[in-house]
Amino acid sequence: MADSIVTPSRSRDLDKLLLRPGNLVGPTFEPGVELRDDLREYARILVVGAGGLGCELLKDLALSGFKNLEVIDMDRIEVSNLNRQFLFRVEDVGKPKAEVAAKRVMERVSGVNIVPHFCRIEDKEIEFYNDFNIIVLGLDSIEARSYINAVACGFLEYDSDDKPREETIKPMVDGGTEGFKGHARVIVPGVTPCFECTIWLFPPQVKFPLCTLAETPRNAAHCIEYAHLIKWDEVHSGKAFDADDPEHMKWVYSEAVKRAELFGIPGVTYSLTQGVVKNIIPAIASTNAIISAACALETLKIASGCSKTLSNYLTYNGVEGLHIKVTEFVRDKDCLVCGSGVLIELDTSVTLEKVFSISLGSAVTSGLNIIVDYHKFGLVCVLVLGVEFIHQLEQHPKLLLSKASVTHRGKNLYMQAPPVLEEMTRSNLSLPLYDLMGKIPKDIVHVTGTTDKHDKKTSCLRKLRVAFKGIDGVTDMDMAGGA
Amino acid sequence: MIRLFKVKEKQKEDAENSRGVVPVKKQSAGELRLQKDITELNLPDSCNITFPNGKDDLMNFEISIKPDGGYYKDGTFLFSFEVPPIYPHDAPRVKCKTKVFHPNIDLEGNVCLNVLREDWKPVLNINTIIYGLYHLFTEPNCEDPLNHDAADMLRDHPHVFEANVRMALEGGYIGDEYFESCM
Ligand SMILES: [Zn+2]
User: How far is Cα B22 from Cα B11, in angstroms, rounded to an integer?
Assistant: First the structure.
């Protein structure tokens, strides 16, 4: 690739960052043409959302030297998007955002390849997300962020010292805007706090009491919520309200207007109706541009190491004057999503019943992660989560967990309570955990129960890393399929 | 991290065929927290929980409440709970599936209970809501009406209200509205 040295990149300024050494660079930074080329060749970036932020992100990333981009968004273009979602034109209204955004950026930035995905984020297989090196989020909902966060953190693996294994880390860069305010953050699962560690940062949505809506509406939003939450059900018994259906929205609007007239309340408009029902806050194009710029830059920094990354949460506030602040939030060590889980190491000769009374006892000191020894075929160890076993746990002096309920990948293997669930899961007690877990060599299991901490019973929810020894590593075809 | 990306890309090419992908159901933090809530439920004897979609869907369940005192004694009232994935950041959606003449529950099953909406906090749990619902039957509140007629009647003519509620519990009309027996 000798001639690439003389080929200047499209961006002279990007070259200055990537081709020259520096004092403030990341620890693994290796400047040079190879770095620049590798960014194009090997960095695969997913942009989640093709709305106000997503349009900016695609443009910024494409102009920052990334070549392999994909974008996922389930929405179609609306007229009201056109003021700020600058990749869209009037004739695009009704078309999928992801497809149009990808096409427009590819037309303008030569050499960039953007693959659009017009679907819900939940529609994709989990493995789809594992194909990307960095996931950049331009979303406006807590639910969607929480979902992607769980997926990305789900790839994370810890070694036996509870250190995150670098090759399993899926970094995320999350942007968000609300009017004149915004944030940009870098989430490196296992290293910096994940979305769930700091979910309290998001204020709960304002919800008006239903009786206020029904009896004493005082403002336009009350009238709209009355039509949306109460009147709709009264008239359309059983039919679910769909916020994305314009007919439904128009109906709510007209009912809200009637309601407002009845109580002499001004201010109900169609766009306010949309805003209240979908919880939309007016978007400002420049806020999107600023936040997106920060996110694209962090993405470039993570990938190239050309500078240290944001640590770890930037807030931007343009409401009164201008205020930008970076806060270093800390991880929740017990986070169920990004935490390492409970570790216990066991001798293979110990019977499982005994194993468990010992292991859960020693977990008090060792903290995190269970490894259940699993003898090779023939010598089948059966993990009995039975009444016997649980009773034993309760008797054990160093007991960590009593009254344990066990869940694996959304399947409740055993539930102590309520009685109706206990009954439904009781038959699992006599089955091997390995079978119950679909014969996977290692996986996460969640356990709820009661711990005795300082002679005080507290309820807890723990993440366990269960690994079956002897069948780790390369899997037989027998086991790969799961259950 | 670019070196890592490069290594991974190479590995991916090598391993393309040998990878046995196990389909994974993503469990949200909300589901896990709910699981804890559910195992720790401390229901009064007069309340019962059922899971219409089986043991692996805890996000949708039903609670039946049979008040042992007050105007609604001996009636059985069924509530559906729909728990959002970001629970407990957001409260569950609760509807009353039994048609009832009640000042704080409208005929569509909407329930006016503060902890379901304006006063919900992530430290609260499913138990809090169930006790709140139970409380609505032992002490219906005409200050925050959702069913105006019921609230007026309770405030102005408690005896008439009582008689009407008794009648509705056994099945009958209040005005034009028919209530099926729920005893
Ligand atoms: Zn976390």
Answer: 19
Dist. CA A310–CA A314, nearest whole Å:
8
How many other C-beta atoms can be found within 10 angstroms of the C-beta atom of residue B131? Answer: 15
pLDDT per residue over A16-59, tens digit each?
A: 899 999 888 988 899 999 999 999 999 999 999 999 999 999 99
CA distance B167 to chain A (A): 24
Q: Which helix (H) or strand (E) holds A151?
A: helix A142-154
Is B123 an interface residue toward A (CB < 8 Å)?
Answer: no
Lowest mean pLDDT among A122-126, A477-481, B153-157: A477-481
Q: Could you please report the per-residue DSSP string of A213-260? A: HHH---SHHHHHHIIIIIIHHHHSTTPPP-TT-HHHHHHHHHHHHHHH
Q: Give pLDDT, residue A396.
A: 42
CA angle A192, A198, A202 (to 5 degrees): 140
Looking at residue A344, its pLDDT comes to: 54
Residue B32 neighbours by CB under 8 Å, 6+ apart? A336, A407, A446, A461
Q: By the 8 A CB rule, do A136 and A57 touch?
A: yes
Contact A412 B35 (CB under 8 A): yes
Cα–Cα distance between A302 and A23 in angstroms, integer? 16
In chain B, which residue's Cα lies nearest the Cα of A28?
B1
pLDDT tens digits along B105-160:
999 899 999 999 989 999 999 999 999 999 999 999 888 889 989 999 999 999 99
What is the predicted pLDDT for the residue at A172? 98
Percentage of chain A exceeding pLDDT 70: 82
Complete DSSP assignment for A397-424: TT---EEEEEEETTEEEE--SSHHHHHH
Q: Which residues pair with A383 in a beta bridge?
A: none
Mean pLDDT along residues A350-364: 38
Nearest CA in chain A to B50: A420
| A201-221 as b/e: b if 16+ CB within 10 A | eeeeeeebbbbbbbbebeebb
Comparing A68-82, A357-371, A424-438, the range with the smallest average pLDDT is: A357-371
Alpha carbon A85 to chain centroid, angstroms:
24
What does each C-alpha distance from A151 to A28, A155, A172, A176, B150 come to in angstroms? 27, 7, 11, 19, 48
CB contact under 8 A, A214 and B148: yes
Contacts of B90 in chain A (CB under 8 A): 204-205
CA distance B85 to A150: 11
According to DSSP, the residues that pair with B177 across neighbouring strands are B174
In this prediction, residue B155 carries a pLDDT of 93
Q: Looking at chain A, which residue has its C-alpha nearest residue B35? A: A448
What's the rounded mean pLDDT across residues A158-170?
A: 90
Contacts of B9 in chain A (CB under 8 A): 42, 44
CA angle B99, B105, B107 (to 5 degrees): 45
pLDDT band at A362 (very low <50, low <70, confident <90, very high): very low
Peptide bond just before A418 cis, omega within 30 deg? yes
DSSP state of B77: E
Query: Whole-angstrom Cα distance, residue A356 to residue A450?
Result: 16
